[in-house]
Design a protein that fits this description.
Layout: E1 4-9, E2 12-16, H1 19-38, H2 42-61, E3 63-67, H3 68-85, H4 91-124
Antiparallel strand pairs: 1-2, 2-3
Helix pairs in contact: 1-2, 1-3, 1-4, 3-4
Length: 125
Amino acid sequence: MILEIQQTRGHHVVLDVDEEFCETVVSACELRGEWFETHGDKEIGNRFDAIATIWMVGRWHGRVHTRVAWLALTADACEWYAESLQRTREIELGWRAKDACRQLKSVLREYRRMNGRNYELRTRM
């Protein structure tokens, strides 16, 4: 699972991803969205459905263009998915979900670090 920031534009990032990573994220977001819809929050459920669609498209292109704020939701979905899988026999899938969460959080930290440096450069001028 390779996840690397290729580009940042404002509040969006373009990530290089592999197919397995995308499949894990799509599963996590779809299930998390269903959970929210079942528990009465259709708006959040719809947001997770939109995120899942973005990652489905990314699976075919090897790249995902997404909002940074949605990366945090995606990481949360993967973490929830990994915890849910702990109660099942899907051990490998649980590890993939946990790894996806770790990588997404790493991308968020990298994005914040990169933008923090750009902000410092702008304020010095």
